[in-house]
TrEMBL record:
Keywords: Carboxypeptidase, Hydrolase, Metalloprotease, Protease, Signal, Zinc. Residues 1-29 form the signal peptide. It holds the Pfam family Peptidase_M14. GO terms for cellular component: extracellular space. One of its GO terms (molecular function) is metallocarboxypeptidase activity. This is Zinc carboxypeptidase. Its cofactor is Zn(2+). One of its GO terms (biological process) is proteolysis. Residues 376-707 form the Peptidase M14 domain. Belongs to the peptidase M14 family. The active site is at E665. SMART domains: Zn_pept.
Amino acid sequence: MRRTRQRIALLVLPVLVGSFLLASGPAGAETTGPTAESGRSHLENPDQINLVRVHLSGADMLDQVLAAGFDLEHGLKRVPTGIEGEAVVTAEQRAELEAMGVEILADHESFTWSDEADGGLQSVSARSAQTFSHEATVRIARADWFTTKGQGFLYVEARTTQGQQTSPVVTMQLENDSGPGSDFAFARTMSRFVDSGQYMFHRNLFKLDTRPSQIRVTSSTGGVTTGPVSNWLEDGAPPLTANPGYKWDFVDGYKHPQQLHDRIEEIAREYPKIAEIVYLPYQTNGYQRKAQATIGGTGQAAVVVSSAAWGHEGGNDISVEFVNRPGADLPLAVEVNGNAVRVLLAKNAAGALASTAAQVAQALKTQSGGLIDRAHPYRTNAGTGIVQASAPVALTDFLDQKRVGAPDGEVPRGPNTIRALRIGKHRDGRNPGVLIQAQDHAREWVPATTTLETAERLVHNYKTDWETKKIVDNTDIFLIPTNNPDGANYSFYNFASQRRNLTNHCADDNADPARRNAWGVDLNRNYRVGSAQDGYAGGSFSCVSDTYQGPEKLSEPEAKNIVWLAETYSNIKFFMSVHSNGGQLFWQPGAYVANGRVTTPRPPLRDELFYWQSASRILSQVKAHRETVVTPENVGGSSDVLYSSAGNVREDLYHTYGIYAFGWEVGGSVYNPTTGNWQGGSFQPPWIGNPALVSGHAETMEYANGIMEMFRIAAEWGKDNKKPTSKLVPGGGTYPGPVDVRFEADEPVSIYYTTDGSRPTLDSPRYKATEFREPGEVFHVTETTTFHWFSVDTAGNIEQNYDPSKSDTRNNFRKATITIDN
């Protein structure tokens, strides 16, 4: 492994947004405040931000950075020397990261595998194969082969029972054959993945010319095992867009929240037999803020003033003037004339100004006739400085951007009602519900267009495409194209990098207008299960952190609305929270307590297998559009493959309501065969870019394919009345000595079993995985044992119609006896 100089797309949001949106939608901007206006303080200027690539030494440093509140959530990638990622930072924050030991990468700098470097391709002598058994110190969890853009890749995960040792460091070496019938002739070194001090597994993604049929993994501690290679994703699986006459490609550019709301309401009016709008009950803060100014000088002499009324409701009409009157021994006073507030500064016996910032702030709060709601010294200053006179300064909410094409020319102010478009022939609870929630994070524009494209495909193809008709007839779909309309408007018109909503929970020390781009709650940290308040990592208590969890669980209306949907429509059984960018597909566990890496409860083996099965289908449809592959290393429990995200929505919906809850980071890396690199995405890629690489349009189309497949999964699940079948492998019989056995089934199931001759029930032991991200456990049978068991699939069907709740003579559970003939 070595660092090589490569072209990496460096996203500098202020430049990017101003350039590509000219042709594709309303223009966003990184505003710096109206400093050109006479009398305004430079203290009102928000810091400029940039998105930079970073290298961290490992998981411990990642935990440290996230705990400090840095926005380091997208584009993370494990590399052999640590973790690479992207950070949205100011110049001051960049310096803080570097002080913590984080390396800032140059825009051409990255890590890549090289066949010539250490760990590359090298000849080795063949070793004798050893099949998997209970005694093996090495296990292969995954060995997945896929192709993209004419190149083959093999992803491998393996564990060693010695992996937690740190001295000596365990190394793993992978050997692969060159096809059926060939020997193990080559090897590569695998990287050890440690998270929060805990060994996870060894893993790597290898570029290969030929698909191996088997691989062998050897540990430096002496373990060795072989295993088969499986295909990851279904090459050539046709998406619905391949059906004759199928209509698609409806969305022609990025859409702001008003356009999204208008369009889904039009759809409901145009297709009333299959569509309606659900207006969610908890209104958001709205695209509105109090009017503010920072006046009177710098440092200890600065005073921050905020209006009582919202800016658009009168706050923007207020002016504040600090007046130096002639004379001596004059008291501090405040005069109010209409919306003009004049602070008559005190003077001492020598005729010098004598009012401190703290005194002026107190006078404004108590003597402004109710016009001023908050007044305080600047940030953490005590306000001991003497305030200087100033000309009248107009208060402003800084929301001065105009909406292109709107009748009134401005973004609507006031509380916002979030809409969900409900699509289904039968919207009465009889069919399984699927909730798609997009744009929790404001700057993520592709998820909104992906969700809208999905809605368009459903209604336009219902009468002409049989597969679409089956979806609409057999599911109950709820689509929220923007779950954070206030933040999204702010992202479009004020600050492109806005992540959170627009509710300001900050106290005076962070309430000045220069902090306006740092307010709000991370909606995907505001839920109840695995929250930061309960000690889980990945959510911040700082109101100016981009992962701020909020003042309490479910403090935000946007989060309350999702819970309301789950409780009001109990038929919702599937959920997808669509984010960008990074190219991951996630489920539980999503959070852990960093000390000891204690995760939220893991899904049982049945649900884990169902998630993997669904992911394969969904991601195969994504690949069918332009060969974008979401790799296996980026699929699974989010806390297992990347990081802990306390209080995320997936965790709450799964554990509280039993909903199969996915999280999707769209816009993943696309392999570039010209350079041999994986080209990363961005929050707001050019709408029409290189269609083979980074393009908002292409991402919208391919990920809409995946969501349509999720609807098909839900429809099939709702119609599933087939009983599962399971077996013990190898089966019952007589064996000359101890034998290893395991359960297998024809679909994802929970298997409840006994070995003491008793009747199995739902309280019996449940068959579990050997370890997370691994197949089912292996039983080492050393004496004659009888297994009794039954299986239950995800739809609740029980094998052989067995009723575990009744103790009667119909003991039609499965049975097998392993006789050990010693």
